[in-house]
Amino acid sequence: MDAFALNPALPVVRDELHGSAAATPWIVSGYLLAAGSLMPVAGRLGDLHGRRRMMTLGTVLFGVAAVLCALAPSLPLLVAVRVLQGAGGALLMPAGLALLTHAWPPGHGQRATGRALGLAGLATVCGPFIGGVLARYISWRAVFWLTVPLALAAALCARRAPESRDPEARQRFDTAGAAAATGALGCLVRWLEHPAAWGWAMGAAALGALFVRAERRSPAPLVDLALFRNRPYVALTAGGALANSATVALLYVVPWVLQRNHGWSVRDAGVAFLAPAVALAVGGPAAGRVRPAAAVPVMAGCLALSAVGLGWATYGTGAPALLMGSTGAAGALGVAGGLALTGTQAVVRRERAGEASGVTKAALTATAGIWLAVTGAGTGGVTGAGTGGGAGPALALPAAACLAVAAVLALTLLVPVVPRVRGRLGRRAGRGGGVHRND
After folding, report:
1. Given this model, what pLDDT does residue 436 score?
2. DSSP string, 80-123
3. Start-to-end CA span in the chain (Å)
């Protein structure tokens, strides 16, 4: 709710703190990038030292950072504290997902995760409206104050969850891998923000290569590279990363366009955004009911539908077209994003749930932060470029990207066909056969 509630208030934050159009998106992207870059580390720490412990620590850090955000006197300081809040989010999100998976018997964790995503969707529904009302009648700082008691309640609830960890994990932490991964992502973001500075690109490539080398040689790697031989896991994570990037762009651009291009108030923009938020919220429970074997084709279809909705929002005329297209896209993106979390947990071993959820959440969060850092820096200019007051290029690119990845995911459906056919032939021959999932 914290991120979604703040979106309608970003123009108000920018005006009150005298920030620039280039710096304002970093209130959101700074949080996302910090959370994304640290999630693999957090997931591994949860496997080693206990997921309940990491979730409790992350929730406390998140709440403390929320207090500092509410007191921030300037935009640079607000961005810095949001980065700290992202570190807290990195600790609690993969640990919470893994705890939920282990709290249910095998085969039931996917639906439980879907229900949890539905509860998170309630925050999505309420967030923009609450943020708009608070910013209009009290202050945007009240958005952060509101999260403090929620963080405290979450920390108390986490203490009641049974502790879990990976019993096969070696009690060593891959410091070299963690440093290389974090540095590579930081260099990549700096390069995308300043494309002419090729030194950052070279640094990202070099550190990325060092990360792969470190993981191959480490006896206890931060990320077991064998995870990427699990084709359903890779397909769902890649599709989910794109879906989350498009969702964040949608959440950022639509309230901004309604205020800047159509002259709506913060409150009215928050109320209007309830329709896309409701559509996004129902995606989690819907994703929880999709069988693991059908997760990839369903995600491909959702990404294709989201491309249509985003295209409508981009090139439609007036606020009604923007909201209708955004609502359709949000519903499809909600299911796709939910499948990235529920489906990936279903195709890996339960003992690797923390590591797998950390990598998945890192991919989803970091790509969204990178996307917003790159496209959001110019949002104040590009959102007026659409025809008839539409959202313009800020949503056109996610639409094209969703369509492209939908085609890629559709092709991955052909991958398991041959092994399944061979398995049937083998069983008919009396030898049996089957497909074993990789992890």
Report:
1. 40
2. HHHHHHHHHHHHHHHHHHHHHHHTS-TTTHHHHHHHHHHHHHHH
3. 32
**Which SS3 state, helix, strand or coil, does residue 389 take?**
helix
R_g of the chain, CA atoms, integer Å: 21
In a 3-state reduction of DSSP, which class is residue 173?
Answer: coil
Q: What's residue 373's pLDDT?
A: 66
Question: Is the pTM for the entire model greater than 0.85?
Answer: no
User: Hey, what's the torsion of the CAs at 143, 144, 150, 151, to 10 degrees?
Assistant: 160
**Which stretches of the chain score pLDDT less than 50?**
377-387, 417-439
Tell me how far apart the alpha carbons of residues 121 and 286 are, in angstroms, rounded to a whole number. Answer: 11
Interatomic CA distance for residues 360 and 48, integer angstroms: 18
**What is the per-residue pLDDT across 121-179, written as a single tens digit (0 to 9) for each?**
667 667 767 877 888 788 889 989 988 998 998 888 878 777 877 666 656 777 888 88
Are the C-beta atoms of residues 113 and 341 closer than 8 Å to each other? Answer: yes
Query: Taking Cα atoms as reference points, which of 143, 150, 108 lies closest to residue 127?
Result: 143
pLDDT at 201: 87
Q: Which domains does the chain have, with CATH numbers?
A: 2-160+175-428 (1.20.1250.20)
User: What is the C-alpha separation between 391 and 403, in angstroms, rounded?
Assistant: 18
How distant, in Å, are the alpha carbons of 87, 199, 209, 244, 249 from that of 341? Answer: 20, 35, 27, 11, 20
Supply 164's token pair.
Answer: 């879990």
Please say whether the beta carbons of 24 and 372 come within 8 A. Answer: no
pLDDT value of residue 145: 92
